[in-house]
Amino acid sequence: MSHISPSAPSRRQFLQTSAAVGGSLILTNTRSSGAVVGSNERVRIAVAGLNGRGQSHIAGWAKANNVELAYIADPDAKVLANAMKGLEKRSEGKLTTKPIEDIRTALDDPSVHAISIATPNHWHSLLTIWGAQAGKHVYVEKPMSHDVMEGRVAVEAQKKYGVVIQHGTQRRSSSGIAGLHEALKSGKLPRLKIAYGYCCKPRGGIGHKTPTDPPSNLNWDLWKGPAVIDQYHANYVHYNWHWFWESGNGDLNNQGTHQLDVARWAIDDDQTHPVKVSALGGRFQWDDQGETPNTMFAMAEYPNGQQVFFNVRNVNYKGYKKQVFNEYYLEDGSVITGEGNYQILRPGATKPEKLELEPGNVTPGGNWNAFIAAVRAGDPNLANGNVMDAHYGCVLGHLMNNSYRLGVEVPFSEKAGKFGDNADAAEHFSRLHAIMRDGVGVPKDGGKYIVGPTLSFDPETERFVGQDAEQANKLLKDPNNAAYQVPTVENV
């Protein structure tokens, strides 16, 4: 085992204390079958998926301490070749990285310590599970899961095989965000009422692509993997898969996973999943073949009464305001804004004041080096955003999406949502509606919202209960292709 930073033991102590008072942070019943890395040994990593975030993974591991990029994998031969060319330019003739089509080649190599997953969403959990079964530590892009049940299997795989799993939610490495959340939970600040996340980025439509045979450079069967997709079209490869339910989760669980995770992180530590969730929205402005909403207002309530609100607004128009951040509404009426450094607007005040906070407890080194520190220590709890954090945050988004997917069309109106006595929800939806009406110009006649039901969820069984449960539970697990089945909890 290697020496780790002096602050790491205090983080372990902090996590153990959190678990003792009701949290679910400690990953118990593990056996350390993950590859043990000596203090002077290079951590050998294989990256799966080489577009977009995959390039960020390559760059991140290149800067991490004593790390070797052993393999890069992609089912698109052109993408793989281009990635190798980029590595060759940087290596000055000393490149040891091997290009492979299928990441299972790296999983079979006993000299590989970890895999780094940057594939489309539908592959994330299965690769995480395969990695754990092979004794490899796993860094997995957000969202860790494409549906609720496969996320639970990933959790059980971590428990069984004892590997480090870290989620690609980089804000988990922010001591500033951690400090705010610790202050909210310790009583140093008034109690949190609503944690609010925004994923409002300007985007455009994707048009319509005619189904065709896949290009010769793409191993389409391997790209699909577990996802049951009827036929190839060019909008799947290599980014717009985000906007189809078989392969993506919409921006709520794409960019939004970061802000959802921060919002859930702020909820009291003894809370796991929400008990009620609902969502409404639509795919406005674009006439394309995408399926997921580009506009959404969603809310979730936890057993202790705390709530998470979420706003997706991925349209574009003159004067569009980008918002990718979190807000915190406290029970005394205060509102906290910022990221890492914060301001608080107190009741009756005319302007916010700076909020002075102590840094929170995270494993130092940023998300890349925090993962390496956890791998060297053989301690899953040192990961900034461990498998339990990942599961709870991802499920929150899945439940919101499931409500939307069961929704019905109603006229475009400020009264589309049914919020009961939740005045806060009504107010925030009203703000979104005004933007869609006045900014985007959605017409009153002809525009439609999709309004999802309020779903009840049992955090213990991770199943829907009550009204609409039968239909909602069908969305807990996606079908898989025969050669790429996600295992059950019992046979992981």
UniProtKB/TrEMBL annotation:
- Database matches in Pfam families: GFO_IDH_MocA, GFO_IDH_MocA_C2
| The keyword Protein transport is annotated on this UniProt entry | no
* All residue ranges annotated as the Gfo/Idh/MocA-like oxidoreductase N-terminal domain in the record: 43-168
> In the Enzyme Commission scheme, what number(s) does this protein have?
3.2.1.49
Say yes or no: keyword Endoplasmic reticulum present. Answer: no
Xref: Gene3D superfamilies: Dihydrodipicolinate Reductase, domain 2 (3.30.360.10), NAD(P)-binding Rossmann-like Domain (3.40.50.720)
Which key words tag this protein in UniProt? Glycosidase, Hydrolase
An example of a GO molecular function for this protein is:
nucleotide binding
Residue ranges constituting the Gfo/Idh/MocA-like oxidoreductase bacterial type C-terminal domain according to the UniProt record? 209-283
| Listed InterPro entries | Gfo/Idh/MocA-like_OxRdtase_N (IPR000683), Gfo/Idh/MocA_oxidrdct_glycsds (IPR050463), Gfo/Idh/MocA_OxRdtase_bact_C (IPR043906), NAD(P)-bd_dom_sf (IPR036291), TAT_signal (IPR006311), TAT_signal_bac_arc (IPR019546)
SUPFAM superfamilies for this protein: Glyceraldehyde-3-phosphate dehydrogenase-like, C-terminal domain, NAD(P)-binding Rossmann-fold domains
Q: Which PANTHER family match?
A: BCDNA.GH03377, OXIDOREDUCTASE FAMILY PROTEIN
What is this protein identified as? Alpha-N-acetylgalactosaminidase
- Organism, by scientific name, is Stieleria varia
Q: Which gene encodes it?
A: nagA_4
